[in-house]
Amino acid sequence: MISGIVADMDPEVSASDYGEIEKLIASDESPVGIDAKKTHVIIIHKLLQIEKRLERLERLVAREGT
User: Fold this and answer.
1) Angle at 46 between CA 44 and CA 48, to 5 degrees
2) Of 51, 11, 44, 33, the residue nearest 24 (C-alpha)
3) 62 in any annotated domain
4) pLDDT digit string (tens) for 10-64?
């Protein structure tokens, strides 16, 4: 089931979003061109936001099921 979901996902990022993210994580001091710490902070922050949304949705579904 998950492979079907992943296959249906659009992996493309709009050019404007890509450019904005690229600017946020860029680092001239890094050999790979990005600030790894900043990148990880952004990812973790977004995951925490997703987790909170999921918890709210799960509570809604649980209430509707009663």
Assistant:
1) 70
2) 33
3) yes
4) 678 898 999 999 999 999 999 999 999 999 999 999 999 999 999 999 999 999 9
In a domain, 42, yes or no: yes
Distance set, CA 13 to CA 17, 18, 22, 30, 66 (Å): 6, 6, 11, 23, 39
Residue 54 lies in a domain: yes
Report which of 48, 26, 44 is spatially closest to residue 35, judged by C-alpha positions.
26
Considering its fold, how many domains does the chain have in total? 1
Identify the three-state secondary structure at position 66. Answer: coil
Q: From CA 34, how far away is CA 22, in angstroms rounded?
A: 8
> How is residue 11 written in tokens?
């992996």
